[in-house]
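[Discussion] Sanity-checking designs against the backbone

I'm trying to build intuition for which residues belong where. Below is a structure token string of 379 positions. I'd appreciate it if someone posts a full sequence so I can compare it with mine line by line.
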């Protein structure tokens, strides 16, 4: 047991940069020397690599993960009068992107174990106006896409996977992007594949989504000087170069995340006052976040404080669910279908322990020891 106090940060961005500095610097230099910085050859190269990685026909680089969602929804024709179903325990952007189309966000409860959307709650939320399902692969684990696909087929709905958190994850016999119209990715630095700033992408097998999204991201233009109303949301070539270098390492980084998650789960197995993350059998969870829950909501803030005081930068994802945010339901906004006790419990009890590939065994052991120390004294 380490006796001395350690510092355990939440992210390892600089460590990661130093580990592959030569590859990143070479790509940055290549872009700078090329003279082509927007919609240039490096973006094209990265889009091809990203499509190959997902096994999809197309990948479209855009400004960020929120735009990736919103532009996909626009490409699918989602707009005012439509309803889109998702969950409240996700990053705010999932609902925000739906809201931006003018459609109504409809929240259903999440599965009590995975915290992803609970497919058994979806059908009760469907109305004649429902157009779209937006499952979120929360914390790095796929939602139950086989069940979601069945519901979508039965009710003739579109499906867009919000895959900001789970690049490289897999389900039991399905890949991300395979059972939906499109999946979206975020490359903001803290995501599993993160650039030094903002970025995003859409992956799809649908040529129409590809064609429309490409136009939308570039002022509605696919031909010089010809426009329809679109937007400016492109992935810069510099970011594409950084991401191209990092993509080669994502499989090895996912394995490291899984290694640290297994160590946490092993070490914390005897703790009485918390529950550990659930891995759906046969799924490949990539642990964007390692989220434990206190069994009692009153324990969450004291445990978080205890860890922070011990030098461990634990956080909460997400302590305020979307329907608990200021201004809800925002004008044309949103409604909740049924009760959502699981999403509310998740918001009240969640704690994210530090999780990034460059963690050390000493840091993980120290964090386990501190959680167990708190657990023994919890009342
Ligand atoms: C990060 C995130 C987004 C938004 O991505 P940005 O690149 O920050 O715009 C959307 N949905 C989820 C679930 C996310 O975690």
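Best answer:
Here's mine. Compare freely.
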């Amino acid at each position: 047991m380490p006796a001395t106090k350690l510092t355990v940060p939440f992210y390892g961005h600089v460590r990661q940069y130093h580990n592959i500095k030569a590859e990143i610097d070479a790509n940055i230099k290549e872009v700078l020397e090329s003279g082509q910085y927007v919609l240039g050859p490096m973006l094209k190269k990265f889009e091809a690599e990203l499509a190959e990685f997902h096994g999809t026909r197309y990948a479209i680089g855009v400004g960020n993960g929120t735009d990736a969602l919103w532009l996909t929804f626009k490409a699918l024709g989602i707009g005012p009068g439509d309803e889109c179903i998702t969950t409240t325990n996700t990053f705010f952007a999932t609902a925000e992107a739906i809201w931006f189309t003018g459609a109504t966000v409809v929240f259903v409860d999440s599965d009590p174990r995975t915290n992803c959307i609970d497919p058994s709650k979806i059908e009760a939320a469907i109305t004649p106006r429902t157009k779209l399902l937006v499952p979120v692969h929360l914390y790095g684990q796929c939602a139950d896409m086989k069940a979601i696909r069945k519901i979508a087929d039965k009710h003739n709905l579109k499906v867009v996977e919000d895959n900001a958190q789970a690049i490289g994850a897999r389900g039991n016999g399905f890949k991300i992007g395979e059972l939906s119209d499109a999946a979206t990715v975020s490359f903001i630095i803290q995501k599993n594949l993160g650039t030094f700033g903002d970025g995003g992408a859409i992956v799809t097998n649908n040529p129409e989504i590809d064609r429309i999204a490409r136009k939308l991201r570039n002022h509605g233009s696919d031909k010089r000087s010809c426009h329809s109303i679109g937007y400016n949301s492109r992935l810069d070539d510099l970011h594409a170069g950084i991401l191209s270098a990092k993509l080669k390492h994502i499989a090895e980084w996912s394995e490291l995340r899984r290694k640290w998650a297994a160590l946490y789960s092993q070490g914390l197995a005897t703790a009485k006052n918390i529950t550990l993350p659930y891995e759906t059998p046969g799924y490949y969870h990539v642990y964007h976040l390692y989220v434990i829950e206190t069994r009692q909501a009153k324990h969450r803030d004291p445990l978080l404080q205890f860890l922070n005081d011990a030098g461990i930068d634990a956080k909460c994802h997400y302590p305020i669910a979307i329907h608990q945010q200021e201004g809800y339901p925002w004008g044309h906004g949103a409604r909740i279908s049924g009760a959502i006790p699981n999403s509310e419990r998740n918001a009240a009890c969640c704690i994210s322990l530090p999780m990034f590939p460059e963690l050390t065994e000493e840091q993980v052991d120290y964090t386990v020891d501190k959680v167990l120390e708190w657990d023994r004294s919890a009342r």
